[in-house]
Amino acid sequence: MYAMLMKKEVLSNEVFLFNPVTVIEGSFDEKNGYFMDKFNNEFCSVDDLDFAISELTEGVYFTITDKELLYKYGTNDLGEALNFYQDDMFSSFTFAVNTGKVKMDVYQLSLTDLKELVSNITLSSSYYNGSISIPKRRLYMLTQLKDEKKLRDFIDQTIKDMKEIEKLEAEQKAKEEIKKVSLAMKSKDGSNIKNKNIRRDIDTDELEAYLKDRIIGQDEAIESLVTVISDNYKTNDPHLIVRPLIMGPSGVGKTETLKLLAEYLEIPFTKYSTPTLSGSGYVGKDIDDILKMAYQNASRNIKKCEESLIFLDEFDKIANRGLEVSDVAVQNLLLNFLDGTVYDVSLTSYDKIKIDTTFMNIVLGGAFVDILKDKNKKLGFNNSSEEDLTVTDKDIIDFGFIPEIVGRISPKIMYNNLTKEDLKNILKKGKLSPILLKQQFYKDVYNIDLKCTDDYIDGILEIATSNDTGARELKQLVYTSLLDVSHALQSKSNRGKYSEVIVDKEILSNNKVYTLKKR
């Protein structure tokens, strides 16, 4: 069962206005007279007088079942029916009058009702979704339904206001169309919107080498990613901007590659969990939240924000797998973001900024485990096959993505499963090896050499491969095993006393087992 969540606004002691917020799913408790959503939050009905005069601000109304929704809107698609249902609620004015009874009289006036009440008037569809602002004074007049003159006065004034707004919006729309035509004409000779973040000095050979020293076992993926990002920074043509999709199991270096790339290019980096987004009409976060985070990460500098590298992680989790109606809504929400557009971002109720995503580097990523399984590739660290894995647009559409969003994603870059040998190279040779970093730290801070035996390294590899967590667990295993070593070296009484600390496999099960050699 579904209901419309309504926010209460007190117009007077007798009159209450209810503004629609969103559709929520749950069940109605007939015995206790309240609606419970799927998160076990309880909501009173807005026609309940006790609710109206209480301090509660949100209630529900217009409850409806799945079957009733589908029948009402003549469709077999529940998501489509929910959209129609929500649009109906947002295109109407709902208010209640206290008549001294337990249940108040609730009235709803739609834009269609206005048309029927006043002849020869055409209302623009641009006022759909309740975007007309009506002063409280005239809303109160509307509640006096017995006084036909007041009602007609209200309607006449409302329509007058609507026509004025319609005129202003038409003028604004005309200006925007002229601007679009002008930009389109300019684009033919290559002088369209300028990329304010042109970086034609990027040394891709140096950048690739920098990444390969730090991300082991992903040379081809690194080369593809560097090529895409570098080209994005070198063009003034929005049509040449691409949004790559990186795919591969957790812990193989997807996020780390992008963080290092941003670090090298000295640009802001923002990682955002895509599943936290919600489509229009669903409770959750939207594009504003991504851009606000990017703006903060860019030290509140709009120019730097617009040259950000944004990583939409866990992208595979918004595939429409038949579990959430909102999945497709989120995919649709991302279309304009990926195309590139100017967003009005609300920082506060009074502070708005404009952020253009046209030339932002936006990368999408996810594990896409089921696609890899369907391709008969064995996941984990024992995969010795060197066969290239190709993921097609059809694979991604079949996985649960709408064709419109798949058409905006290119290229698809596959990260390899890390072998045991890859993990060993990360520990012994990688510039970000937790062992090498800890050795350097002990030398710089305590003037002590950290010696790790081969069986210590083999022990770490055994744990990491058995847990199937990729390189992500290596740092945790090293740092946890050395906790007691660090504690001992920090002691004032031990300063300058030791020249070397030796650790072996035993320290992984008992971090108090190690050898300190005196100077």
Can you give a write-up of this model?
- The protein is an alpha/beta fold.
- It folds into 3 domains: 2-165, no CATH class; 204-418, Rossmann fold (3-Layer(aba) Sandwich); 421-518, Helicase, Ruva Protein, domain 3 (Orthogonal Bundle), CATH 1.10.8.60.
- The protein is built from 20 helices and 17 strands.
- The protein has helices at residues 49-52, 66-73, 78-90, 111-117, 136-142, 148-187, 204-212, 219-232, 254-265, 287-297, 302-306, 326-339, 369-374, 393-399, 403-406, 420-428, 434-446, 454-467, 472-481, 483-490; strands at 2-10, 15-29, 34-37, 42-44, 58-64, 92-97, 105-110, 245-247, 269-273, 309-313, 342-346, 352-356, 361-366, 412-414, 449-452, 498-503, 515-518.
- The strands form 4 sheets. Strands 1, 2, 3, 4, 5, 6 and 7 form a 7-stranded antiparallel β-sheet that branches. It has a 5-stranded parallel β-sheet with strand order 9-10-13-8-14, with helices on both faces. It has a 3-stranded mixed β-sheet with strand order 15-16-17.
- A hairpin with a 4-residue loop joins β1 and β2.
- α2 (66-73) packs across α3 and α5 packs across α6.
- It is globular and about 90 Å long.
- Residues 117-148, 184-191, 280-284 and 377-387 have low confidence and may be disordered.
Overview in brief:
By secondary structure, the chain is α/β, with parallel strands linked by helices. Helices cover 41% and strands 18% of the residues. The longest helix is centred in the first third of the chain and has 40 residues, at 148-187.
Classified by CATH, the class of the largest domain is Alpha Beta
| Radius of gyration based on Cα positions | 30 Å
* Head-to-tail CA distance between termini: 75 Å
Tell me, briefly, the overall form.
globular
Mean pLDDT over the residues:
80
- Major sheet description: 7 strands, antiparallel
Low-confidence stretches: 117-148, 184-191, 280-284, 377-387
- What amount of the residues lies in strands? 15-25%
Binned, the helix content reads 40-55%
